[in-house]
Specification:
Elements lengths: L5 E5 L2 H11 L3 E8 L4 E8 L2 E8 L18 E5 L2 H10 L8 E2 L6 E6 L5 E6 L1
Length: about 120
């Protein structure tokens, strides 16, 4: 039917919480601390769409390799204006790659990364 949500385990909960809420502007729906797991779970939305569960766990293993490894390659966010979003994120201190053109659609996009080096794509709709 559709993707319900994406779960992300972060290495530093406060850093990632700030990144996804203050830098990217996602809205907090719910914040829970699960004592038995020593884990925070932060439910985030873009507008009215529930999209990300941000988890913290004690000593999570690092990501094994760059995005070409099997598994999740990157998260892609739709934006109205790729140039404006890139400038906004650069102004907030992110290192953003140059804008590329999708060879099949002709749409513009660029990549940056979250605090744990998870690749994030911003794609113009």
């Amino acid at each position: 039917m559709k993707i319900h949500h994406i779960a992300i385990i972060c290495s530093d909960y406060e850093v990632s919480k700030n990144f996804y809420t203050e830098v990217l502007g996602l809205k907090i729906i719910r914040k829970v601390y699960r004592e038995e797991r020593q884990s925070f779970k932060l439910d985030l939305a873009i507008g009215d769409h529930y999209v990300i569960e941000l988890f913290s766990f004690p000593d999570p293993p690092e990501r094994p390799s760059r995005p070409e490894a099997c598994g999740l390659r990157h998260l892609a966010f739709a934006v109205e204006n790729v140039n404006e979003k890139r400038e906004e994120l650069i102004h907030k201190g992110l290192n953003c790659e140059e804008i590329r053109i999708d060879e099949f659609t002709g749409k513009e996009f660029f990549f940056t990364q979250d605090p744990d080096q998870l690749p994030l794509e911003f794609y113009e709709i």
